[in-house]
């Protein structure tokens, strides 16, 4: 039988963390990365699905569309997409093969890359007319509703709609977006801290749900649909909230504004302002949203000590990686300094942003 293959990229988020899910409804600024997940599907003549992955050699999983999620098992993401697709087109039983060079659990959205790749493969198989936005929404529904990850729409849009070498300014409330040129003269450094996260289960999942509800409480008490409706001038209103709710709301409100200010700083070529915004983003995630961990803070503080302020936690938190925008001429010295102070850290990738392509990856 004929097989169909599709791929999708991982992403890094320059700024705009925890602004994209429902109670917050803010802006984000992700960019696709030169890591990809590739999915090959082939009808198998049954109504069942078999799954194989190069990451689990010799192991074959078999499941049906009617099955419930298995608590974040890797096949949940694929089955979730197939279930959503089956409400739109007829999806036959399939043999599904997955290959990927996307690091897992590092905060660069390996799950969204998988979901988008599956949706693209089903589109190729069925001849569906879905555009990139529709594919992103299929991937989001699968991950959020079926797998149960308390995510927003940023990751799926970055993987499906984003273009390599550019940032994607996305308003997660209206889903309006536009491409933004990446900062010039700097290299995007992604460094994992050695502690991987899992937002589909475990402590990270519970903490994410708690913050979701705290932001909902803030919206209710402040009389807004989403916290992105508010601005710096509204911060004094947070004094009426429970302290922990005020913290969460302060992060969501200020982080949304930082995204828009970052775009302005990029378009003006203001590297000092870009750096300060990323540093403020990390401090807010650490102190107000409380999603950082000591290993992440140590990496960021090493970058700051070296003299590169443009560094922060990247991704959902509770582990994962940092992103840093390092002047091209200082990349080697920066990594030598940071890695010496953090021996458990690992370099995920370095991308020369002004060239819009990957230089090397580890």
From TrEMBL:
One of its GO terms (biological process) is galactose metabolic process. Its EC number is 2.7.1.6. Gene3D superfamilies: 3.30.230.10, GHMP kinase, C-terminal domain. Residues 262-341 form the GHMP kinase C-terminal domain. The keyword Cell inner membrane does not apply. NCBIfam families: gal_kin. This is Galactokinase. It comes from Rhizomicrobium palustre.
């Amino acid at each position: 039988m004929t097989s169909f293959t599709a791929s999708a990229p991982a992403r890094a988020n320059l700024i705009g963390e925890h602004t994209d899910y429902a109670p917050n409804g803010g802006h984000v600024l992700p960019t696709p990365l030169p890591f990809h997940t590739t999915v090959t599907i082939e009808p198998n003549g049954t109504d069942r699905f078999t799954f194989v992955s190069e990451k689990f050699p010799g192991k074959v999983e078999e499941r049906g569309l009617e099955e419930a999620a298995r608590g974040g098992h890797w096949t949940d993401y694929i089955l979730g997409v197939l279930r959503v697709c089956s409400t739109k087109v007829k999806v036959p039983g399939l043999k599904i093969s997955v290959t990927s060079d996307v690091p897992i659990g590092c905060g660069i959205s390996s799950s969204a890359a998988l979901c988008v790749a599956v949706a693209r493969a089903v589109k190729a198989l069925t001849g569906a007319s879905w555009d990139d936005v529709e594919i992103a929404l299929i991937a989001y529904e699968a991950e959020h509703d079926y797998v149960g990850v308390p995510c927003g729409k940023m990751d799926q849009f970055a993987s499906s709609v984003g273009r390599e070498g550019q940032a994607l300014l996305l308003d997660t409330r209206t889903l309006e977006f536009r491409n933004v040129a990446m900062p010039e003269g700097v290299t995007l450094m992604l460094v994992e801290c050695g502690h991987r996260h899992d937002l589909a289960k475990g402590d990270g999942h519970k903490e994410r749900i708690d913050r979701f509800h705290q932001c909902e409480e803030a919206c209710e008490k402040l009389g807004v649909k989403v916290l992105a409706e508010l601005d710096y001038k509204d911060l004094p209103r947070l004094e009426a909230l429970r302290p922990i709710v005020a913290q969460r709301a302060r992060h969501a409100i200020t982080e949304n504004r930082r995204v828009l200010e970052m775009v302005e700083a990029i378009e003006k070529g203001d590297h000092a302002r870009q750096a300060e915004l990323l540093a403020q983003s990390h401090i807010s995630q650490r102190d107000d949203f409380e999603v950082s961990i000591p290993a992440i803070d140590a990496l960021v503080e090493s970058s700051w000590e070296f003299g590169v302020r443009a560094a922060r936690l990247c991704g959902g938190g509770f582990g994962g990686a940092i992103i840093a925008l390092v002047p091209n001429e200082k990349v080697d010295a920066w990594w030598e300094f940071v890695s010496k102070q953090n021996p458990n850290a690992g370099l995920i990738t370095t991308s020369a942003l002004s060239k819009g392509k990957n230089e090397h990856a580890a």
